[in-house]
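Predict structure. Chain length: 86.
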Amino acid sequence: MSTVPDTRVSSADVVGGLIAAGSIFVGAIGVVETPVKIVTVSILLAFVAVRMTDRYRVLAAWAVGLSIVWWLLGMTVAVITGNQLY
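Prediction complete.
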């Protein structure tokens, strides 16, 4: 019997963590581009990451929260500057 915990990471956790990080990046781009199209994809990716990973659930939760902030900020910037929403 071993007392060393199992530190192996499943492939679903790795992919979920990458999707969460990608969601944060895509959402940040959506602030300066068309926020309705881009940040909506970011929010969907964040929800997929939350459902997919268990090990990186804090990162995935941050991705959801930041995606909502990106959406609000992107819509505000687009309305103030007169850029396209979609």
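Summary: The chain has a mean pLDDT of 89.
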